[in-house]
Amino acid sequence: MSIPNSLTRPSAWIRQASSVAISWRSSTRCVCAALFEGGGESLRMESLLGLGRYQRPNRTRLSVIYTGFLGDNENILFWVSQFLSEALRFCQRNPNDELQAVVMFDEADLYIPANSKPATAEPLQSLLKRARSAGLGMMLATQSPGDLDYKSRDQITSWFIGRVREDTALRKLKAAFQSESGLDPASALPGQTVGEFHLVQEGLVRPMKAQRSLIAAEQVPFDRIEQLAAETRGTDERQLRLFDVR
């Protein structure tokens, strides 16, 4: 294969490689920057939790963050990593011995998996260690508890394990819990019904039954979510006024 003379010189290869690298970095910056554009609410924990100047007397703020519109998993993981970094900064700004708020992550095995290290893994591991110093409760929900990073399991003090039937998942749970707590997943978990759990806490295991939620959950179409987002877009104060009781 013939190679153009201009590329046979090392300096030409270096210039071309540098040009490609610069182009890739610029493209990455543009994609990531687009995730933070728009007139939405600022990414600040006090605002999301309704604390400080965002607090309303006798009102508890509930913030739900839907990441489905961010695109592929790479975009989602990048944005969530920024959220986790802000949560860590919140812990540094607000040390507290009492519970201030609870943050829940659905499909948590995506953010802290056992077999890979996405952008969210390190900040989430740090948050699991530091959240209690700021009175911030952490709840990780997953359909695959055995797929969570085993290094982080020591930071989780309470496990609520519902019905699990898959053999692979049961084997992973057996390795994670049986030696410490005596829980035999294969006999205890497959027969559980909706709302039934086994609580594993500090080496002790006990069955429990969850009461029906006071909030009726229903599936909301994407176009309705977009409509609600458009209607509530604006300053923090304007968004908070939407929920005032008149």
Keywords for this entry:
246 residues, alpha+beta, 3-stranded antiparallel beta sheet, two-stranded parallel ribbon, 5 strands, globular
What's the end-to-end separation, in Å?
A: 78 Å
Rg over CA atoms, rounded to whole Å, is 23 Å
Mean pLDDT: 78
The quaternary organization reads as single chain
Number of domain modules: 1
- Read across the widest sheet, the strand sequence of neighbours is 3-4-5
Provide the helix percentage: 40-55%
Notes on the structure:
The protein is an alpha+beta fold. The chain has one domain. The protein has 9 helices and 5 strands; from the N terminus they run H-H-H-H-E-H-E-E-H-H-E-E-H-H. The protein has helices at 5-8, 10-34, 45-49, 73-93, 121-130, 167-181, 185-188, 222-231, 236-241; strands at residues 101-105, 136-140, 158-161, 196-201, 204-209. Strands 3-4-5 form a 3-stranded antiparallel β-sheet, with no helix packed on it. Helix 4 runs parallel beside helix 5. The longest helix is centred in the first third of the chain and has 25 residues, at 10-34. The protein is globular and about 50 Å long. Residues 1-8, 17-28 and 242-246 have low confidence and may be disordered.
Blueprint (SSEs and pairs):
Blueprint: H1 5-8, H2 10-34, H3 45-49, H4 73-93, E1 101-105, H5 121-130, E2 136-140, E3 158-161, H6 167-181, H7 185-188, E4 196-201, E5 204-209, H8 222-231, H9 236-241
Parallel strand pairs: 1-2
Antiparallel strand pairs: 3-4, 4-5
Helix pairs in contact: 4-5
Summarize this structure briefly.
The chain is α+β, with helices and mostly antiparallel strands and 246 residues long. The chain has 9 helices and 5 strands; from the N terminus they run ααααβαββααββαα. It has one domain.
